[in-house]
Design goal:
Blueprint: E1 11-13, E2 26-38, E3 43-49, E4 52-58, H1 65-72, E5 79-88, E6 103-114, H2 131-136, H3 138-141, H4 145-167, E7 171-172, E8 190-192, E9 200-202, H5 208-216, E10 221-229, E11 241-250, H6 254-273, E12 282-285, H7 286-293, E13 306-308, H8 310-313, H9 319-326, E14 330-336, H10 344-357, E15 364-369, E16 372-375, H11 384-394, E17 401-407, H12 409-426, E18 437-441, E19 446-448, E20 455-457, E21 483-488, E22 491-498, H13 503-512, H14 517-531, E23 538-544, H15 545-553, H16 583-588
Parallel strand pairs: 1-2, 4-6, 7-10, 12-18
Antiparallel strand pairs: 2-3, 2-5, 3-4, 5-6, 8-9, 10-11, 11-23, 13-14, 14-17, 15-16, 15-17, 18-21, 19-20, 21-22, 22-23
Helix pairs in contact: 4-6, 4-15, 13-14
This protein binds one RNA strand through strand 2, strand 3, strand 4 and helix 2.
Length: about 600
RNA sequence: GGCGCUGUAGCUCAGUUGGUUAGAGCGCCUGCCUGUCACGCAGGAGGUCGUCGGUUCGAGCCCGAUCAGCGUCGCCA
């Protein structure tokens, strides 16, 4: 092993910075062995770091003998330092795929800083490696170029958001992680207190109450890159801990908050991606979003709006539709342009998908084919008047197909909305490189739990009702909120609202939600107390960082943009968490576990050592 | 918690109707190779077919259970 000389005549450089202008310079590169090409004579070593790849060449005629022999034994992922002279590559051997492809380092010295075992999976190439294996060796997975890109882009985007918000007068303020558990909303992660045996902290589901108190405290404009924790059952693309850009401001109108969020997002996309985002974003009312797109987070990358076909079938004697309409339900559908050419089998598959995956009771269709009208519906439904109206309502012509879901209006819209997304994907209309933002406004203040029938907050119980409504008379479900969602490509990026600052209004809302005075006092007493000491009007928003970055980089999963994510069962396969603790720890906490300790066996089937 | 898919070499995957010694590409090891760049060529090693049980003369393949991973729904103010 040859040491790099320490004469100070060499310059340490990254693997991405050398170019033709550096020819003749004496340099040392440090990094990982990306690939080796041993020609028996010449040995090429690709050295990799975050910045790129640089080719080092060892030549038996010019390199020190020790260095040359050492180079012959290099393997993937060894960590080395190679020193030598930068020279242009011989004509015709330049590599246009590398930023440093015009030059190479004619290496005469080599230090092996650390050998590597053979990595458990290849670092280059596009092979789809088992995600559990990637997670167990996340530090290796993160060396791969796409992951390095994702993590760096995340940094750039968050830096852009910080810079923008700072320039707008927002202060970044941290809020506590050990807080009080409240039974509303998602399940809390609990942290036992040793000093107060039998009592627990909760990890925050969001800094919601603290940011409101910061407004009461007069900080005017607050933001935080906040970590949030929710102990819910796992689901696709959900992490037990996730990050939000949490924002709150004093004396805002809804438009003020919207302008700040639009500016923040536009700045993030501009600085991290180089993508110009048009502002202001399109605004949709909640009812309008549901009616046109069957979703409160519409994907506006394509049109294909839904229509209400109820009038077309109002006069027909087809029992199923007639019964639904008699119950006040709706027949919601959409036109599948040029869809009449689908085979019977394709139609059947769609109908089955609708039933199995979207919870549809049924899905009817009419195809206006060139050789006549075909349909899953019986003749009773297909009167000339009905067909004429279907064409008129949907704007359907020959060659088109029309789908219909008959159900309660909200359910029919939801099914048609899912079909819309399905057809959009099928037709390649959901281009991940396009970014279509919108706002959804005028949400209801409350929603009814379909099972318990109880009234619950649509957003959270601190959301202010729209002005000019009487809270105490009339249907609470008809009340509108000053609540707004920002949506990108069919994903909700964030939710916000103008908050209630009047303790009397807050009490009325709690009352409508059915909270008893004792419950309110116990859970939110400190908030009402604070509001009694001069609470300014305030409002804000929280943006889901992981989702935003995932959409920016076109990743399918937020796990691709989180350095150390947990798996679908919320385990960390690398450090093996969660895991049992020492009995002594439990004794100190005065806890007894009501379940025999499971011997920890993470990743059993794949475990190597 | 429900449902679905998957589990074969270090990695990605084949494996026919249940039938002799379970294969390929990449990786790994050895040798050759002086302009390659995921170098090339030759040879070699490497397997509890996730686990347990059952059916069978015989199971990678069929049946049951179980574990694990992923997807999806409930749930997530």
């Amino acid at each position: 092993m040859t040491s790099v000389d320490n004469t100070g005549t060499q310059r340490f450089v990254t693997c991405g910075e050398l170019g033709a202008q550096d020819a003749g310079q004496r340099v040392a590169v440090r990094g990982w062995v990306n690939a080796t090409r041993d020609h028996g004579g010449l040995i090429f070593i690709d050295v990799r770091d975050r910045y790129g790849v640089t080719q080092a060449v060892f030549d038996p005629r010019t390199s020190a003998r020790e260095a040359y022999e050492s180079a012959a034994h290099l393997r993937s992922e060894d960590v080395i330092m190679a020193a030598g002279t930068v020279r242009p590559r011989p004509a015709g051997t330049e590599n246009a795929n590398l930023s440093t492809g015009a030059i190479e380092v004619a290496a005469d010295a080599l230090t092996v800083l650390n050998k590597s075992k053979t990595p458990p999976f290849p670092l280059h190439g596009d092979a789809d490696v088992d995600e559990a294996l990637r997670m167990k060796y996340r530090y290796i997975d993160l060396r791969r170029a796409p992951m390095q890109r994702n993590i760096e882009l995340r940094h750039r985007a968050l830096k852009a958001a910080r810079d923008y918000l700072d320039a707008q007068g927002f202060l970044e303020i941290e809020t506590p992680m050990l807080i009080k558990s409240t039974p509303e909303g998602a399940r809390d992660f609990l942290v036992p207190s040793r000093l107060h045996a039998g009592e627990f902290y909760a990890l925050p589901q969001s800094p919601q109450l603290f940011k409101q108190l910061l407004m009461v405290a007069g900080f005017h404009r607050y933001f935080q890159m906040a970590r949030c924790f929710r102990d819910e059952d796992s689901r696709a693309d959900r992490q037990p801990e996730f990050s939000q850009i949490d924002i709150e401001m004093t004396f805002p109108t809804q438009d003020d908050v919207i302008a700040v969020i639009e500016g923040t997002l536009a700045h993030m996309f501009e600085r991290a991606l180089g993508t110009h985002v048009k502002t202001p974003f399109v605004r949709l009312r909640y009812d309008e979003a549901l009616a046109d797109y069957g979703s409160d987070k519409p994907d506006l990358r394509f049109a294909m709006k839904l229509s209400d076909f109820s009038p077309a079938f109002a006069g027909t004697e087809f029992k199923i539709f007639a019964n639904e309409l008699a119950k006040g339900h709706a027949i919601v559908g959409l036109v599948d342009a040029s869809g009449a050419g689908r085979s019977r089998r394709e139609f059947d598959t769609l109908v089955q998908t609708a039933a199995a995956e979207w919870g549809a009771k049924g899905l009817a269709w009419i195809a206006f084919a060139s050789d006549g009208v075909k349909s899953s519906l019986p003749k009773a439904a297909l009167t000339e008047a009905a067909l004429t109206q279907v064409r008129a309502i949907g704007g359907a012509g020959e060659g088109d197909a029309v789908f219909f879901a008959a159900d309660e209006r909200a359910a029919a819209q939801a099914i048609a909305g899912k079909l819309r997304l399905h057809l959009g994907s099928e037709r390649g209309l959901r281009d991940p490189a396009r970014f279509e933002f919108c706002w959804v406004l005028d949400f209801p203040l409350f929603e009814r739990d379909p099972e318990s029938g109880a009234l619950g907050p649509m957003h959270h119980p601190f959301t202010a009702p729209a002005p000019g409504q009487d809270l105490l008379t009339g249907d609470p479900l008809a009340l509108r909120a000053q609540h707004y969602d920002v949506v990108l490509n069919g994903s909700e990026l964030g939710s916000g609202s103008i908050r209630i600052h009047d303790p009397n209004v807050q009490r009325k809302v709690f009352e409508l939600l059915g909270y008893s005075d004792e419950q309110v006092q116990q859970r939110f007493g400190f908030l009402l107390e604070a509001f009694a000491y001069g609470a300014p009007p305030h409002g804000g928003m929280a943006l889901g960082i992981d989702r935003i970055i995932a959409i920016m980089v076109g990743a399918e999963s937020i796990r691709e943009v989180i350095a150390f994510p947990k798996n679908q069962r919320f385990q960390d396969l690398m450090i093996d968490a969660p895991s049992a603790v020492e009995p002594q720890s439990l004794r100190e906490l005065r806890l007894r576990v009501d379940q025999p300790a499971q011997p920890s066996q993470p990743n059993q089937s794949r475990s190597q050592s």
